Amino acid sequence: MKNFYSSFKNLVVLLALFCCCYTSAQNASEISNTYKNYTKAAREIVYLHLNKSTYIKGEDIGFTAYVLDKKTRKPSLITTNLYVSIEDKERNILKQKLIRVKEGVASDVFTLDSLFTSGHYNIKAFTNWMRNFNEKNYFIETIKVMDPDVEAYYSIETISNEIDAQFLPESGHLLNNTVNTIGVTIKDRNGYGVSFSKGEVIDQDNNVISTFETNQFGIGKFQLIPQIGNTYSVKTKYANKDFTLPLGQKIERNGILLSVKKLKSKLFISAVTNNSTLNSIKNKKYTLLLHNGDTYKTIGFVFTENTTVNKAIDYENINPGINIFTLFDENTRPIAERLFFNYEGLDIKKPHIVSAIRQKDSTLININLSNIDTGTDGNVSVSILPSSTKSYKRHNNLVSYTFLEPYVRGLIEQPKYYFTEITEKKKYELDNLLITQGWSSYSWTEIFNNPNKIKYPFEQGITVKANIQNRDKDIRNEKSYVIHPLSEDPLKIVPVANNEKSFVLENTFPDENSFFVSKIDNEDKLTPVSLYMQYFPSTIPQFNTNNIQLLPKPEYKTAESLDNQTDYNLLESNEVHKLSEVLLTHTNKKDSIKVSRFGGRVFDMSIYENSSYDMTLKEFLVSKGLIISTRNNSFGVFKKTFDSITYLRITLDGEELTVPSILNSYRVSNIDFVEIDTGFYGISGHLVIYSKKDNPPGFNKKTVSEFNFPLTFSKEKKYYTPKFYNYSDEFFESFGVVAWKAKHNIGNGNIRITIANYNKPVTLFIEGLTSNGTFISEEKTISLE
Question: What integer pLDDT is reported at residue 599 of this predicted model?
Fold first, then answer.
């Protein structure tokens, strides 16, 4: 009987363990599948390299956009549509553009015109696809504008010595009778960290039980074993004023903490509880999900007799960049989360050499990238400012905005600091910062409840749906529509079956509102069309974000005490300069390409512009010794020699023409240039035609119908360096611009920039990205003397 009960008891235990393991496997599988389903859709990140953060009204904001695949962290090769806007503090949109992205890069300019005055503005960039996700994959940054008509002086403000201090337990819980690590953030009234502030943690009996010191951004940490029934405070001092602040965290009687620590080649993840919790959670299975928005791994935790469970992961198996550890209970509820950053494997390079050579009336700056694989393409953008500039107070760079910003919820002061001249100290400081950030930007409510919420389509160019009207009048089984060239798009001929009621033009990239369409009639002549057009997208979408942004950090000082605060120095000096007036003249007419494509003869058709007789293309070609066949309304081009006839293939605007009969109505006034290659020894030749972009081929009121795009791509504008009255005074050294170079292909590894002579040191703010995912980031000061 005793053996029976013993066997029965063992069987019950085995069944319990089996059920526990089966349930835990189910939980891990459910978590993995849900997370995989949520993250399987592509993600993008966009970053704008702005040439400054503080501008004078009348200046241009120069920017280069970098659009990346979030998972590979390489330039996006499929994104083409990027929306960029500027909003005021009430979120009114003052300016907005649709700009075209090519191989992950685009650039343009905003002019700070009469719409702007002194104040702060948000510049935002996003794609339509980004609107599907809650993570901060879009770009937003606050800039400052100075209007000389509003503020005659720039000033150093005096602020009161108030602080905002928060004490944030690692993984979000303060657990009774357990060693807790608590992150510290101390900020001043403007929201910036109180540097190197010392503090003491005291209990209700005024005993000092822990101490800390913040770094330059007001971040620190301390350890505490809290006891229920005791109260804890923090004493600190700022600008000669003493503060005693409550810890502000509830001590939980039961719970689990999550802690992460790197030791040599391994990363240790610890789940920690206390004795009062252990009995109720013993043998229950917890699941730890290690993830980064792309890859993921589950690890099981079981508490048995000890209050701490440690798991070790070889550091080489940790993803480069951010790693998020989320702990789930037996009911798959997320109960704790910890962020950790792995610097190993990041491909960040600085220019090998940056030098300057003075020439007669200019200076040549050479940026050498020989330490980067020059076998790949890539772009580098450079802002060149006086070395003592006060106008580049940007918090992020391309690296920090790619690897850190999209994964955190809170504000970070100067995140680029952690990726500039990386040291062990900065790694330690970033880990302290991540303790204070709490939960990541991934919402588990969203992941579990809306894993497939895709409302906004991915956009590549503008799609046009042409709805055919009065089709019953057509006789042929198939009709062809001619889409005359627009922007960079060549002429297109679209065949449409008689039973079709519409046709679609995809991937169009117009930068002009008007475009023209013709139909080839029964006699192969061009005629107007009867179409109803629909456009996708037709407007710039609204993308409302609730993020509070850190302003570019101004110059200010803190009053020693509230009683001593004065206003006498608010306008003490430093007159704000108006920019000198600059008259810019240029022509919109593009220079025609007069380069031979096939080695034939190139004819510039502009010589016929003022001719009293507008000859046809046929007449022109016959005058050049070619034979034109228009039998059955076709258009064949031949060259006859003494022993053979050579056929010429026809290319119009870069595309081989499949319906050459439309050339019957072309006149030379609609053509930019023609190349004639007559071939040799039986090899066919080429007739290459490039039409005038501002006067489409075959264009006249009798042969085309005009339509208007409601939304077009912005024509990339040239950045004009602002003119200052004085290039040697303090104002120019603080807010002036030496140069802005938005696009430089990495090419052979040498970037050369020519600037006007300037006799003082300059700082180059260099950002870039190669096609294989190498990041280029550097702030380099050089002498120009």
Answer: 57
Cβ proximity of 31 and 289 under 8 Å: yes
Q: Is the peptide bond before 75 cis (omega within 30 degrees of 0)?
A: no
Closest alpha carbon to 519 in 559, 548, 478, 459? 478
In the chain, pLDDT over 90 holds for what percent of residues? 58
The β-bridge relationship of strands 180-188 and 163-169 is antiparallel
* 607 φ/ψ angles, rounded to the nearest 5 degrees: -65, -15
Residue 692's pLDDT is what? 75
Closest by Cα among 113, 173, 122 to 143: 122
Q: Alpha helix (H) ranges present in 534-647?
A: 617-623
Which string of DSSP letters, residue by residue, matches 643-709? S-EEEEEEEETTEE-S-GGGGGG-BGGGEEEEEEE--BTTB-EEEEEEEBTTB-TT-STTT-EEEE-
DSSP, collapsed to helix, strand or coil, labels residue 304 as coil
Question: How far is residue 371's CA from residue 663's CA, in Å, rounded to a whole number?
Answer: 53
Q: Helix or strand or coil: residue 22?
A: helix
Q: Given the structure tokens 């001590």, which residue do they identify?
A: 251
Question: Strand 378-386 relative to strand 762-770: parallel, antiparallel, unpaired?
Answer: antiparallel
Where do the H-state alpha helices sit in 289-443?
Answer: 398-403, 424-437
**Residue 180, beta-bridge partner list:** 224
Determine the Cα–Cα distance for residues 551 and 556; give it in Å rounded to an integer.
Answer: 13
Spatial distance between the Cα atoms of 669 and 337, rounded to a whole number of angstroms: 69
CB–CB of 117/148 below 8 Å?
A: no
Tokens of 202: 């005291």
From CA 214, how far away is CA 186, in angstroms rounded? 8
The Cα–Cα gap between 630 and 626 comes to 13
**Separation between Cα atoms, residue 468 and residue 475, nearest integer Å:** 14
List the one residue out of 720, 489, 686, 511 whose CA is nearest residue 601: 686
Place of tokens 């302290």: 432
Length of the chain: 785
51 to each of 61, 369, 735, 764, 765, how far by Cα in Å? 7, 21, 12, 10, 8
The span from the CA of 699 to the CA of 666, in Å, is 9
Q: Residue 727 class from Cβ within 10 Å (0-12 exposed, 13-18 middle, 19+ buried)?
A: middle
What is the distance between the alpha carbons of residues 66 and 45, in angstroms, rounded to a whole number? 8
Q: How, if at all, do strands 531-536 and 462-468 pair?
A: antiparallel
CA distances from 651 to 505, 626, 677 (A): 21, 16, 12
Residues of the chain with pLDDT under 70: 1-26, 374-375, 451, 471-477, 487, 560-575, 577-578, 580-599, 609-610, 612, 641-643, 680-683, 693-701
Residue 343 to residue 646: CA distance in whole angstroms: 65
Rounded distance between C-alpha atoms, residue 157 and residue 774, angstroms: 41
Beta bridge partners of 492: 483
Residue 782: both structure tokens together: 């050089």
Q: List the beta strands (DSSP E) in 332-486.
A: 334-342, 348-349, 353-358, 362-368, 378-386, 462-468, 478-483
Catalogue the E-assigned strands of 509-555. Answer: 514-520, 526-527, 531-536
Residue 310 tokens, joined? 């440690």
Within 13 A of 156's CA, how many CA atoms are on the CB side? 11
Cβ neighbourhood burial of 694 (10 Å; 0-12, 13-18, 19+): exposed
- Residue 41 has φ and ψ, to the nearest 5°, of -70, 145
Angstrom distance (rounded) from CA 740 to CA 392: 13
Neighbours of 323 (CB within 10 A): 21
How far apart CA 562 and CA 566 sit, in angstroms, is 9
In degrees and rounded to multiples of 5, residue 776 shows phi and psi of -115, 120
Roughly how many angstroms between the first and final C-alpha of the chain, as a whole number? 101
In whole angstroms, how far apart are CA 77 and each of 73, 104, 247, 463, 772? 12, 6, 49, 19, 12
